[in-house]
Amino acid sequence: MHYLVTVIVLCLLLPVLLSSKKTYQEGDRKIIFEFSKGLKVTMLICLLFFSLLTVALSVVSIVEKDKAMIIGVIIFGIFAIVNALLCITLNNKEFVFENDIFSYKSMFGKKSSFSVKDVKEAIYKPTDCTKLVLNNGKKVKLDQQMSNYDKLREILENNNIPYKDKHGNEVPKGW
Fold it and tell me: I need a surface site. Which of 3, 68, 77, 82 has the fewest CB within 10 A?
């Protein structure tokens, strides 16, 4: 039963993760920020590894009737679940800039959009992301691992959006 569930989940995730999208071409005003295909494949391989390890440990614990192995099954099962959530996040999360409108798709596929004029400031965290703070107080996170992340700087500078570090200090243009 565990094998069947693992195979079904992987068969459903693989085509979705490996589908390609047009991300950017010179002259286009549409820029898609998304996670790279290599990162998606790496996380899918990790999901496969942890899922198979969980199944193998559960089979061994049933055959050997070893209750101590159940702890390993639980631990690797949790790793597999967390990894599956990361795969969903990597596949679904998307940020699109087109005609001065940002469109954002969250981890679970919920879409929202806002204008460049709605962005109050950008907060740069050098370790992981840039957060766009909107006029209504909402924050939208753009991860550094996303493709075309360097284009965000151009968009912010062209629209005179204040850019601050995580401590609130102004970052000079050309950062």
Answer: 68
**Cβ–Cβ under 8 Å, residues 122 and 130:** yes
CA torsion, points 31, 33, 35, 38, in degrees to nearest 10? 30
Tell me the two tokens of residue 34: 């998304």
* HEC per residue, 51-115: HHHHHHHHHHHHHHCCCCHHHHHHHHHHHHHHHHHHHHHHHHCEEEEECCEEEEECCCCCEEEEE
Here the tokens at position 15 are 């085509």
Show me where the domains of the chain are located: 2-22+35-92, 95-165
Closest alpha carbon to 95 in 148, 172, 40: 148
Q: Is 0.90 topped by the overall pTM?
A: no
CA distance 39 to 32: 16
The Cα–Cα gap between 90 and 66 comes to 37
Residue range 34-71, pLDDT digits in tens:
777 787 888 888 888 888 888 888 888 878 877 777 78
